[in-house]
# Entry
Amino acid sequence: MNIIFTDVLGVPEEYKPKSSNKFIPEWYKNMSSYINDSKKPNGSGGTLGTIKRCMPVFDAITNGYIITTYVDVYVSNNDNLPYYEWPSFNPISWHPVEQAPTHPTYNEVPYPKWINPWGIKTPKGYSTLFVPPFHRESIFTILPGIVDTDEYTSPVNFPFVLNDIKFEGLIPAGTPIAQVIPFKRESWEMSLGNKQDIENQNKINVLLRTKLFDSYKTFFRSTKEYK
# Structure
């Protein structure tokens, strides 16, 4: 499958979207895979693996693509309100606070939004989920959304809130804004598992317990590729 990012503002090449596996957080890269760097059983048949051995976390971090800021933005305080400055490109606009007065992120100030320079096109039947980058510390958090990017291919902007309304400092160019995850639109119907489903899950659990290390990765995980 192919996802196309089209630059409508002419931002520098350095700040083009990239696969999320190019933006693995430092805390994750620097963490040991095992407590005390000890790859051995814990004395009761378990292991001493850290969150770095959790493949669901790794797959979330490396899923899809990352859109970043493309110019420095400095945040200061002006009459108890955040004040944003930048050298070029006009990267931020605003939504009136009245547009989302009951949203959980409401903080009594207008909602700034990152002006996204990238139009996105996905194959027929595929939409795009935009979320804050997973498992990453950030100065701000965008409001998630889904766009049917097989039909609507213009840039989608990203309203956000400061995680600390009193924050003052630099948001450097190249800071991750949004994780971009294409997915196929399908109709789903929910049902509850039966006796056979329980038996199948028991078989999975038995198989998992045949290995001390990386059992989910060995038996069940599928490789995900985003290039």
